TrEMBL record:
<feature type="domain" description="NADH:flavin oxidoreductase/NADH oxidase N-terminal">
    <location>
        <begin position="108"/>
        <end position="294"/>
    </location>
</feature>
<dbReference type="InterPro" id="IPR051799">
    <property type="entry name" value="NADH_flavin_oxidoreductase"/>
</dbReference>
<dbReference type="InterPro" id="IPR001155">
    <property type="entry name" value="OxRdtase_FMN_N"/>
</dbReference>
<dbReference type="GO" id="GO:0016491">
    <property type="term" value="F:oxidoreductase activity"/>
</dbReference>
<keyword id="KW-0288">FMN</keyword>
<dbReference type="GO" id="GO:0010181">
    <property type="term" value="F:FMN binding"/>
</dbReference>
<comment type="similarity">
    <text>Belongs to the NADH:flavin oxidoreductase/NADH oxidase family.</text>
</comment>
<keyword id="KW-0285">Flavoprotein</keyword>
<keyword id="KW-0560">Oxidoreductase</keyword>
<dbReference type="Pfam" id="PF00724">
    <property type="entry name" value="Oxidored_FMN"/>
</dbReference>
<dbReference type="InterPro" id="IPR013785">
    <property type="entry name" value="Aldolase_TIM"/>
</dbReference>
<protein>
    <submittedName>
        <fullName>FMN-linked oxidoreductase</fullName>
    </submittedName>
</protein>
Amino acid sequence: MPSNRWKSELVDVAPLREPLVFRPSGRVVRNRLFKTAMTEGLASWSPRDISQRGMPTAASVELYRRWGEEANTFGIIETGNIDIEYDQINAIGDMIITLNDAPSGTRFEGFVSIAKAAKANGALIIGQTAHPGNQLHAHIRSNTISASDIQLVPKKGPLGEFYAKPRAATQDDIDHIVASFVHAAEYLAAAGFDGMQLHAAHGYLLAQFLSGRMNRRTDAYGGSISNRARIVVEIAQGVRSSPRVPKDFILAIKLNSVEFQEGGLTAEEARQLVATIDASEGSGEEGGPFDYVELSGGTWHSTGMTWDRESTRRREAFFIEFAEKIVPALGQSPRKTKVFITGGIRSAAAMVGALDVVDGVGLGRPAAQEPRIANDILEGRITSSIKPQKALEDISMGLRLAGTQMGQIGKGEEPLDASDEQAAREFLADEAKWHAAMMADGDKLELSGYVKLSTPQRPYGE
Ligand SMILES: Cc1cc2nc3c(=O)[nH]c(=O)nc-3n(C[C@H](O)[C@H](O)[C@H](O)COP(=O)(O)O)c2cc1C
């Protein structure tokens, strides 16, 4: 039985096949589709010996091999967030590179293998680096740093999330964070990565500095837009001036186009932020230090990742109406700093349509469901992604489904077909068991990864 797919008007996908030249790196990406960051949950984990956490595994390498394997696969493959501390992490099973990690040994060889596997057919591989700040879960560590000492209220989520207590970062903390991100870029470059992306969206630490709602500082890192952007600019300048980062290394940033909370970032502020960052020194004559800005939105508490808004119903992309306000800050196409958009895009028609506003289109959950999706769309074999059953459609359940599918790919399987009613029912039953086990595990931290399937599933695409 063929998979059920999203509807798409018939369109010529030639615009998606157009290459793009990045500046300042000078690198060429061969098409306009990229696989966006999704934390894989596949790296090594140890509850107590924290330095043993976050090493890529054979499953991590297999996952990236699959995303890179087709002749016309994604132009760019972004990794899931790579944390810069062993115990201030976004999720158990994230990959980790800290200041303690020299570019040698098992961890480093794991990153080398991922880069090789992802690049086998010409995709560029970009490592996304991140720090959770006050979004750190309290069962992982009870205290953390943030721009200010604002603790998040517990989220009434399926996992009953409680958050660590933050203190406002000192100058020493900020210097350490900047040095850690710069070190990660040097490490990734040495491992054969084509670039690094700073995760400054979704309410994580760098987004906490950028957002007036979370940043109440009165020093050089708070207040005006240029002060709030300072930490990001310092990291970018550190990367660009490092003798251990090649000149053709791609530097990118994932930014929120908007936050959906009282006092949160507005699209107008995001426009000013993008303009400020782009005007900062960092790459000589050519201006801003970033090759591309990826626009997303929301925070962990309020993701905004729904198809409810009117413009989204028409154009699929969650944040396209905000992107329209922000992109002009970077100039008309062909602009120096390229802009990509991620979130909600499912049909070839919406992908091609988004190129009227931005330069490239990111796919998250569809890439976990169908590792061959870019190739199949660019070669005209399909015109949209698989449409999951309704119960698996929202970001919360969709995240767990995508995590499970990434785990299946890592094991050499094909992902389950989420458009299939029985497969969805079985996944939800396993998810309920997984949820109970996670709750029982609490701060023992012995469980890692996403939902494990108890019944064999029919592979997608059959
Ligand atoms: C399983 C999963 C893990 C994710 N992990 C990350 C991450 O590590 N970094 C990040 O910036 N966004 C992460 N996201 C958000 C995605 O990058 C993307 O913004 C979101 O899924 C919306 O895109 P989509 O509708 O194409 O899935 C994750 C999403 C999923 C589903």
